[in-house]
Specification:
By secondary structure, the chain is mainly alpha-helical. The chain has 6 helices and 2 strands, in the order ααβαααβα. The longest helix has 14 residues. The radius of gyration is 15 Å and the shape is globular.
Length: 92
């Protein structure tokens, strides 16, 4: 019997992009919890954490599908929320 291991991207029919292969990410990277500042800094890496969050929050508020995420009191984004952000704003 041959032992084959499939990546989540293969199982769900997603192809890994070249940039994902270069930096070692797969589609499953969206399935993790991110702190709000951590995710904001991915979109605005040259800003201070506070400024990055403020700009990122403004982006979230401008999009009706992500606006509720900007107003939550929790300081983390769950995997489904990260996926929604990626679909709305694109990957950083």
């Amino acid at each position: 019997m041959q032992n084959t291991t499939s990546t989540p991207a293969q199982v769900f029919g997603h192809a890994e992009s070249m940039s994902d292969q270069v930096i070692g990410r797969t589609e499953s990277s969206s399935l993790q919890v991110f702190g709000r500042t951590e995710l904001a800094l991915q979109y605005f890496p040259r800003l201070t954490p506070r400024s990055a969050w403020q700009k990122f929050r403004a982006l979230l508020i401008d999009d009706p599908t992500t606006a509720p995420l900007a107003r939550q009191s929790r300081r983390t984004f769950m995997p489904a929320e990260v996926s929604l952000i990626y679909r709305s704003l694109g990957r950083p």
